[in-house]
Specification:
about 140 residues, mainly alpha, about 65% helix
Length: about 140
């Protein structure tokens, strides 16, 4: 679909050259990751280090010279990363909730704390009356 039509329909319009830049960054990033794995393999005496270095060089060359060739690798990689990101988010948020927030709330209830001041002690509403009212001139230059 033409960019002008997409813009009039309110659909997102791809920035020119963004995909090419993303593929270039992906190629260099993948090359760095493969070089790291080659280093680890070399340290442990593995035979895969030269092959990983060749793959890293190929990814870096393709990323620099012809980034569109990395498209068939980039799309499945991004789908897998999106799934991993969702799982990771649920895992981290669950750990935070059950290991930090839940015990804190449980202890606050045991102690009897009213952290949000929700109890209607001797007042008719939740509104807090101010003792000192600021001068109207102080509202002019707030920052």
């Amino acid at each position: 679909m033409d960019e002008g039509i997409r813009a009039r329909l309110g659909l997102p319009v791809a920035a020119p050259g963004k995909e090419r830049k993303d593929l270039r960054v992906f190629g260099f990033g993948l090359a760095l990751i493969l070089m790291f794995f080659a280093y680890l393999s070399r340290r442990k005496g593995g035979a895969a280090a030269p092959y990983e270095l060749c793959l890293a060089a190929a990814c870096a060359l393709l990323g620099g010279l012809w980034p569109m060739a990395l498209g068939p690798v980039y799309k499945p990689w991004m789908r897998a990363v999106a799934v991993i990101g969702k799982v990771n988010t649920w895992l981290v948020m669950g750990i935070l909730y059950y290991l930090i927030i839940t015990p804190y709330a449980f202890l606050a209830r045991l102690i009897g704390g009213d952290l949000l001041d929700e109890r209607m002690r001797d007042r008719g509403s939740y509104w807090h009356l101010r003792e000192d009212v600021p001068a109207p001139e102080s509202y002019r230059n707030q920052f």
